[in-house]
UniProtKB/TrEMBL annotation:
This is 3-dehydroshikimate dehydratase. Pathway: Aromatic compound metabolism; 3,4-dihydroxybenzoate biosynthesis. The lineage of its organism: Bacteria, Bacillati, Actinomycetota, Actinomycetes, Kitasatosporales. Pfam families: AP_endonuc_2, Glyoxalase. SUPFAM superfamilies: Glyoxalase/Bleomycin resistance protein/Dihydroxybiphenyl dioxygenase, Xylose isomerase-like. One of its GO terms (biological process) is 3,4-dihydroxybenzoate biosynthetic process. Catalyzes the conversion of 3-dehydroshikimate to protocatechuate (3,4-dihydroxybenzoate), a common intermediate of quinate and shikimate degradation pathways. It catalyses: 3-dehydroshikimate = 3,4-dihydroxybenzoate + H2O. Signal peptide: none annotated. PANTHER family: HYDROXYPYRUVATE ISOMERASE, XYLOSE ISOMERASE-LIKE TIM BARREL DOMAIN-CONTAINING PROTEIN. It is an enzyme of class 4 (lyase).
Amino acid sequence: MRTSIATVCLSGTLEEKLTAIAAAGFDGVEIFENDLLASPLSPERIRDRAAELGLAIDLFQPFRDVEAVPEDLLARTLRRAEKKFAVMERLGADLMLVCSSVSPAALDDDALAAEQLRLLAERAAAHGIRIAYEALAWGRHVNTYDHAWRIVRQADHPALGICLDSFHILSRGSDPKGIEEIPGEKIFFLQLADAPLMAMDVLQWSRHYRCFPGQGGLDVAGLLEHVLRTGYEGPLSLEVFNDVFRQGDTARTAVDALRSLIALEEAAGRTDLPAPVVPTGFAFAELASTGPELPALLTELGFARTGRHHSKPVELWEQGDARIVLNSGLDATTGHPEPALAAIGLETSDPAASAGRARALLAPVLPRHRAVADAPLDAVAAPDSTELFFCRTEHPDHPSWTGDFTPRAASAAPAGITHIDHVALTQPRHHFDEASLFYRTVLGLRPHESLELADPYGLLRSRAVSGADGSVRLALNVAQIRPDSGPSGSLRQHIALHSRDIVATARRLWELGAPPLPIPGNYYDDLEARHELDPGLHRTLRELGLLYDQDDGGSFLHLYTATVGRVFFEVVQRIDGYQGYGAANAPVRLAAQHARVR
């Protein structure tokens, strides 16, 4: 289907928005009136620029407070409309959005509303323009789509139809099934937006927190299916009011927007994308390593250096099925002036299919500079710029990336680490919703509830995504703090390693003079009050600096290492089916990390 987006969704000037919208691959655009008013370009130049970019101007919006008004206001309204029709002719736009009135002067009179909308449609038709009437969720008298449709049907004019907006419909809890009773040819336009589920005034919810389909909690795909059953043939258009999007990078927000529509069409069965290939595990985590600190920390954790890349300054460290790659070639010239997480290898049953789906969903494909002997690895960039490699390690039918390393004899005593449990990725604030959509659509991972965690200098927002079996877990974090508000402990990255016996792992760290992050005694006093733990277990937790959590499935023990550069390790042990991430303990961890960098 044709795709469109309202200019209000993006940051920047109108010309910047048009350029980004076209570059992302949209077919059309809704011109938001405020963007036109602020532009130095004439309507004719905007029309020509859109044509040069291959964009149709699908809608001009919004026109407000039209229907069911007293006679003296009607005359002024029609005069105003005539002026806007003239502007639309200069723009080359032939569809105007009219919102249901919020004016205190509006009368609760459907017959009068229909009569006046019919009059407006007659005036519009004389200019070759149609009117799409939309029920605002906070409209004074008309605030549901079925009410708006009754008025349009009563007005009975060929130039008057309805505009359906997923946010206005779903935010009020209206049943979208009734949409199927509207003839498709009378649905003049469809606007799509999602939103997180929030208990707040619907106007404020709408103006500040809308997001692209798939990034919130509304069933936008279900609504779209109802619309498509009517025979609607217009564009799928996005109209999102979001404070973060309007501050973000214009070009990447436009790409994220189109990705949301591609995924939405897939959910509605209207496009044929390569099927998602859900990762089955972590092949490796790659760290930029510029000194001896990370090798020393890995050794303390029981990892052994098992190989060196045959052509690059890269080492492979292993313990059980956990593999860490240290790359000393990533330095300030490549954006990693200090130790940091640079890449993740994801196990997949079909790397080519994984890469194909990523490309279809507009993920940036990374160029690979490899020697002839190097294993082929497809990679894409995640929203935070972490490189994601699609791997099939040590499989007889696929070249393994481990073959690029010259083996060397292991020399370290293992410490019970079995595999990488999860990886926490710090997101730039403007990319958090983009990341959630990216991992759900590109990798087929399931997003969990978004959490806000207390940080000594603000809030940390966190959302986990995982495969159904938990073999791949990612925690997406963004710090809601000012850059100058305190030590940037919230901005660190970490790799969580699973231990079969975390008590033994912790004792080893203490014996080697590398104790875990110190945890305040007050935490253990509270732990004793909240949980009826075995006294011996409680003493062990306090003695070794271990943290504890539990859910309906089981319990969770974890510890944190010191931080090197921007990276630290977490060691975890999941007991009896625990599914969480120890989020209740995050404020204690964050405070302890801040204290260490003072």
